[in-house]
Automatic annotation (TrEMBL):
Protein name, entry field: Histidinol-phosphate aminotransferase
Keywords assigned: Amino-acid biosynthesis, Aminotransferase, Histidine biosynthesis, Pyridoxal phosphate, Transferase
Keyword Transmembrane: no
Coiled coil (UniProt feature): none
UniProt pathway: Lipid metabolism; Amino-acid biosynthesis; L-histidine biosynthesis; L-histidine from 5-phospho-alpha-D-ribose 1-diphosphate: step 7/9
Every Aminotransferase class I/classII large domain range: 48-345
Enzymatic reactions: L-histidinol phosphate + 2-oxoglutarate = 3-(imidazol-4-yl)-2-oxopropyl phosphate + L-glutamate
Length: 350
């Protein structure tokens, strides 16, 4: 589907003049920088961080480009995926007028970001098998629906959303379809990044926080057509990714072999953990997972959660989430951590 992205933008964003520094405005190389009121003498650190970082993170984008197979100009790097989500609301949704569709149970920040930006949320629950309710989505769309958020593999259920169903939404919805692939590295599902040239309304979110083990650095990525990336760059803070973060991320991206080994081990441990959980009497169901976590339906889930907390083991209680009653979401840990978890659950007595 081809959509005029400009027609979806808020009027004030269409007319926005973005912040521009002197370094955006000159071409070529310079050796004396007296434009940005930095400390010209250096930093009180072994590494000099007195200069502002590259506002568009081109070296990092070029490295990501070689790994993902996407041109650098189709990449936005945010302070976590949360920034990439928030900017979409601020750029495309008129407060108090527009709405977005989410498909619970799903990642909670879509709703939080909508509420912060005063954007109405329409909830179309997943079907009992945790797949899209296409009829429900079609009925929920109105003239003010700007975005649909789909998390795949889904958080907290762990399953991948049927690819053909997502393509149906992409082909028929005249707004942005945001596919959150935070857990794609642990899945056999193909990324939708490959479809960017087919759908101008597609935004794919990924992150370096999960498989890449860089959660503390807060690096989220949005992949989209050039027009959407231009909007991202227009709205974002001038220097949203620090120099130190860019340098550390570049270093980490050289270690793809290590990351692939961790992914393989995580998938192996996921299968072992699922099997061991299923053998425990109070565990009623272990849902299939394409992520680095498992959702398990458990008798007395609330009590078990408190029991684990008392013993210093923190999992996520999802019992109050729609379709996830009496369920705990458990991250796949190291073999040692998983053994401690299983041993402790077996000690639980109601």
């Amino acid at each position: 589907m081809t959509i005029d992205i400009n027609s979806l933008l808020r009027e004030n964003i269409k007319n926005l003049t973005p912040y521009s520094s002197a370094r955006d405005e000159f071409q070529g190389e310079a050796s004396v920088f007296l434009d940005a009121n930095e400390n010209s003498f250096g930093s009180p650190l072994d590494t000099a961080y007195n200069r502002y970082p590259d506002p568009l993170q081109w070296k990092l984008k070029e490295k990501i480009s070689t790994i993902k197979g996407v041109p650098p100009q189709n990449i936005f790097i945010g302070n976590g995926s949360d920034e990439a989500i928030d900017i979409l609301f601020r750029a495309f949704c008129n407060p108090g007028v527009d709405n977005v569709i989410i498909v619970p149970p799903t990642y909670g920040m879509y709703e939080v970001s909508a509420n912060i930006n005063d954007i109405a949320i329409k909830k179309v629950n997943l079907l009992p098998d945790f797949q899209l309710d296409l009829e429900g989505i079609a009925e929920a769309i109105d003239k003010n629906t700007k975005m649909i958020f789909i998390c795949s593999p889904n958080n907290p259920t762990g399953n991948s959303i049927n690819r053909q169903d997502i393509e149906t939404v992409l082909s028929n919805f005249p707004g942005l379809v945001v596919i959150d692939e935070a857990y794609i590295n642990f899945s056999r599902q193909k990324t939708f990044i490959q479809e960017l040239t087919e759908y101008s309304n597609l935004v794919v979110l990924q992150t370096l926080s999960k498989a890449w083990g860089l959660a503390a650095l807060r690096i989220g990525m949005a992949f989209a057509c050039g027009d959407i990336i231009d909007v991202y760059n227009k709205v974002k803070p001038p220097y949203n990714i620090s120099q130190a973060t860019q340098e550390l991320a570049l270093e980490a991206l050289n270690n793809i072999q290590q990351v692939n080994e961790w992914i393989r081990e995580t998938v192996q441990q996921r299968a072992i953990l699922a099997e061991e959980l299923a053998d425990i009497s109070i565990v009623e169901k272990v849902y299939p997972s394409d992520a680095n976590f498992i959702l398990a339906k458990i008798k007395y889930a609330d009590y078990l959660y408190d029991f684990l907390v008392d013993r210093g083991i923190i999992v996520r209680n999802r019992s109050k989430v729609v379709l996830c009653q009496d369920s705990l979401r458990i991250t796949v840990g190291t073999p040692e951590e998983n053994d401690i978890l299983i041993k402790t659950i077996k000690e639980f007595v109601i």
